[in-house]
């Protein structure tokens, strides 16, 4: 027995005694598990891989999280690349922020949802929490760096201790993909561009027919006022309206009356308005509504909608948008226009007969609203000011693309079509026809890599030719080079097209150039 | 007042008293700021959001973290793109894993450094910790999914509660950029390919002359045994040797003798070996060394080095590599070859006269070893087995590119050269020559976007022409369209090349095509 092994065995004995003592003393489960883990780690160090001693905890990712396998990453990367192209077409610049923030940065920004924030353990030093979205970190970044205008995009993971329905594309760790325009500009120009971006993103991803619902927080507030809701209840009632995308009006009315103390008449008045959706003609109709046009907030909201609809028409978006008074959005920080992109197929599939038409979309709220919802956003003019020591405001409007939901839809489609995406980009596989050629393979690979050609080999000294060629077919590698002494003695190698199995001899000196000529196959 | 609120108010009182005491005692600024932060967090929990109390905490990112501004992101993205190209050239596939893991996954994997792991607060449910590197998550992923071979790359942030010297490119949150080959292959073929990848990455990034130091954990253990180190001290002495990249031999010797209880003679014998570096001839010399060739571990390590050096020679790496017996690497999990890429310029600059040549590299240990170190890795054959319920091993070898350090070097160079990277890709700015043209601008923009042209405008109704043209020059936008009623009435617009200021009239109907013809300028 070598000395290292002896030493580890000694340590295992000591650690084993410790675990037994802890168990006898009925110490806390965590403490015992920690020491058991150490014990198992020591045993693993012995490298007796056969020993049945590995960790006993379930091998899994944390609840609500997942790994992305190469197949998923390939799809994800292609989706994100196309989204970034849209963002760049509109002048976006990228930023990145830390995955956690000082807890105070997040406190008081998310209303009822603040309980979903992940906190880090206090290990001495600062009190930290995981970011809940990318919007509050942007506001902190702008205030901290005194930046008064930017068009930025940010693609990163955010964290919510939700109880996710992961089968429906909802997670505790998920990607957000945000584009925001910060700066003091003329009304609705930036807002309309964000709506345009949502539409370009959904078009480029080709995930089916969609509608972008539009509404305005000022109009919602004005409408509540007109219906007789006390100002102190605006946010609570707004949050009830937000549930119309997953619950029928009767349930929402019940929440307003039973839980939020609204009288039934007031609720019914709200019910009349939130059923409405349409276009410019609906704005006209509401501007003529006597209850609404007596309330300045409502008029301002409607005038904003009027301008937004006009700009959207200039962007050829009429067929894509719907002014929808039931759209409320959950987050507290919105102050103006709000919008949400919803897949129409999803909406129809999930609508239950119990639901009315204008709120019959599918199911649960998500990063971007409902599961059918694949993008959302709005204007938030006061958030940056909350971080500035002097309260200096930087008006912002932005959009968040619900990429997780989009991944789910596209993955389901790929599975249905039995599409197998390539997960690597290898162009040439370098194979040996017989034994003893591994050094020749390394020389050829070195030459190919130097020419920028993507190439690999089996990493075995003497792999079987058939196994090598099967590898090429399975991985959809277009070309294979087959080395053999006969050809090599004449300075040649066999170049094989994998799908056609056509082979021809190519001089080693011309190999890279010949491969370049054949690619892309 | 509800009970929660009462409890928070009590806590605020206690915390307020603590802050006052610390201030009275003139405690360190950091300590006081931490406690003030807690106080403010408590106050924020009261949720008195309406109060006109912009936060009083310092507006900052958490200690050891930073934002990336657009300028930095542009550089970072171009570095990562080039690295990914190398990874793909070698057949790499991407995966992603959650940013946190079950705490047990990380327990017992990092030796002395485990104290640097960030834990999440226990909010009910699973006990979680932030990932410390990308290697242990890979091992968990392979074991969990029973994957026995993969070439994967993974670019993501990792977390260490270190005390970072951020001016030197060290952070608590930083990107790792890993390529690993998992699978049972023939000796040193995968290992040599990883060394080749390090060299291709450093070549493609063009960050200056470098050397890749190579060593072998089995040789180190055999060498310790040959010198008479008790097996129980191998890891401790290895960790002392690891410090040779920042401390002179005399300090390391002192640690071995005073702290780790080695006798002086044994330490001196080690000192003789760790001074050695060279190539294949050094392997020969050591294989002939009577002390070493009596120890099976040493012989195995040397034979491995011999094969590795041969393969590296086939990859034309002789001028880039150095077999270096002082290289030890900090992490516990390595079992075979270890390597580290070090920038030579850095090494020379920081070497102090007190340091001997072979250990005179610069300064502090980092994600990838020393600050001069920009890549590192090695073989770890037992890590996956630690996660497999039956201990089934999957041999692995990999490399981690120290991208943060590379960013720092390239940022410093860009600053020195006064290079201003473009942070957006806008190709055309759509300007108004006079008032009242904003709707025309939206129409033209809509046409350009539809043609895939990257275009923006001022987002103001009536911007000044000069301001618009200055914006183009500042942001290095190559083309501007200047709209004016005169031209528009003839169906024309003015197209201006921003740098030359050359203008010509172009028919609106031909605009996108004409812009395509002019780009890239």
Automatic annotation (TrEMBL), chains A, B:
Matches recorded under CDD domains: HisRS-like_core, HisRS_anticodon
Location of the Aminoacyl-transfer RNA synthetases class-II family profile domain: 64-431
The record, for InterPro entries, names:
aa-tRNA-synth_II (IPR006195), aa-tRNA-synth_II/BPL/LPL (IPR045864), Anticodon-bd (IPR004154), Anticodon-bd_dom_sf (IPR036621), His-tRNA-ligase (IPR015807), HisRS-like_core (IPR041715), HisRS/HisZ (IPR004516), HisRS_anticodon (IPR033656)
Query: Has UniProt tagged this entry with the keyword Coiled coil?
Result: yes
Which UniProt keywords are present, listed alphabetically?
Answer: Aminoacyl-tRNA synthetase, ATP-binding, Coiled coil, Cytoplasm, Ligase, Nucleotide-binding, Protein biosynthesis
Coiled-coil features, chain-numbered ranges:
15-49
Record's Gene3D superfamilies? Anticodon-binding domain (3.40.50.800), Bira Bifunctional Protein, Domain 2 (3.30.930.10), S15/NS1, RNA-binding (1.10.287.10)
Q: Name one GO molecular function term.
A: RNA binding
Q: Where is the composition biased (Low complexity)?
A: 360-373
Q: What is its EC number?
A: 6.1.1.21
Q: State the superkingdom.
A: Eukaryota
Please indicate if the UniProt record lists Repeat as a keyword: no
Identify the SMART domains for this entry.
WHEP-TRS
Where do the WHEP-TRS domain residues begin and end?
Answer: 4-60
Q: Which SUPFAM superfamilies match?
A: Class II aaRS ABD-related (SSF52954), Class II aaRS and biotin synthetases (SSF55681), S15/NS1 RNA-binding domain (SSF47060)
Q: Name one GO cellular component term.
A: mitochondrion
Reaction(s) catalysed by this chain, per the record, are: tRNA(His) + L-histidine + ATP = L-histidyl-tRNA(His) + AMP + diphosphate + H(+)
Q: For the region Disordered, what residue ranges are annotated?
A: 349-374
* GO BP, one annotated term: histidyl-tRNA aminoacylation
The UniProt family comment states: Belongs to the class-II aminoacyl-tRNA synthetase family.
Q: What is this protein called?
A: histidine--tRNA ligase
Q: Which organism is it from?
A: Drosophila busckii
Task: List the top taxonomic levels of the source.
Answer: Eukaryota, Metazoa, Ecdysozoa, Arthropoda, Hexapoda
């Amino acid at each position: 027995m070598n000395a290292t092994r002896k030493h580890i065995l000694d340590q295992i004995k000591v650690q084993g005694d410790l675990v037994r003592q802890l168990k006898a003393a009925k110490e806390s489960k965590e403490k015992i598990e920690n020491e058991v883990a150490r014990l198992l780690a020591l045993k693993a160090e012995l490298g007796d891989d056969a020993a049945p001693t590995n960790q006993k905890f379930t091998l899994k990712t944390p609840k609500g999280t997942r790994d992305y396998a190469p197949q998923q990453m390939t799809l994800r990367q292609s989706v994100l690349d196309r989204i970034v192209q849209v963002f760049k077409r509109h002048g976006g610049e990228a930023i990145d922020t830390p995955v956690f923030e000082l807890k105070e940065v997040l406190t008081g920004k998310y209303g009822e949802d603040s309980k979903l924030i992940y906190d880090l353990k206090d290990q001495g030093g600062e009190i930290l929490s995981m970011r809940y979205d990318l919007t509050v970190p942007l506001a902190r970044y702008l205030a901290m760096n005194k930046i008064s205008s930017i068009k930025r995009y940010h693609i990163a993971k955010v964290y919510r201790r939700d109880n996710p329905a992961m089968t429906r594309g909802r997670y505790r760790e998920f990607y957000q993909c945000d584009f925001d325009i910060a700066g003091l500009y003329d009304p609705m120009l930036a807002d309309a561009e964000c709506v345009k971006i949502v539409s370009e993103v959904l078009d480029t991803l080709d995930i089916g027919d969609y509608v972008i619902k539009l509404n305005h927080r000022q109009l919602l507030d004005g409408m509540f006022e007109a219906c007789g809701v006390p100002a102190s209840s605006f946010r609570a009632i707004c949050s009830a309206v937000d549930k119309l995308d997953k619950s029928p009006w009767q349930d929402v009315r019940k929440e307003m009356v039973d839980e939020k103390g609204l009288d039934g008449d007031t609720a019914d008045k709200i019910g009349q308005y939130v059923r409405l959706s349409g276009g410019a003609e609906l704005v006209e109709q509401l501007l003529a509504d006597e209850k609404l046009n007596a309330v300045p907030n409502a008029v301002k909201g409607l005038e904003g909608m009027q301008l937004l609809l006009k700009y959207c028409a200039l962007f050829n978006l009429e067929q894509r948008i719907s002014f929808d008074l039931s759209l409320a959005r959950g987050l507290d920080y919105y102050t103006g226009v709000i919008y949400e992109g919803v897949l129409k197929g999803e909406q129809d599939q999930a609508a239950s007969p119990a639901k009315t038409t204008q709120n019959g979309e599918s199911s649960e709220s998500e990063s971007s609203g409902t599961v059918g919802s694949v993008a959302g956003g709005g204007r938030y003019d006061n958030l940056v000011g909350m971080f500035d020591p002097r309260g200096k405001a930087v008006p912002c409007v932005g959009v968040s693309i619900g990429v997780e939901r989009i991944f789910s839809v596209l993955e389901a489609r790929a599975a249905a079509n039995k599409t197998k995406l390539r997960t690597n980009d290898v162009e040439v596989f370098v194979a040996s026809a017989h034994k003893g050629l591994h050094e020749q393979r390394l020389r050829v690979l070195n030459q190919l890599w130097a020419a920028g050609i993507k190439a690999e080999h089996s990493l075995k000294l003497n792999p079987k030719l058939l196994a090598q060629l099967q590898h090429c077919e399975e991985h959809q590698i277009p070309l294979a080079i087959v080395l053999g002494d006969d050809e090599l003695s004449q300075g040649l190698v066999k170049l094989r097209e994998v799908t056609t199995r056509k082979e021809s001899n190519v001089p080693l000196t011309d190999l890279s150039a010949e491969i370049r000529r054949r690619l892309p196959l």
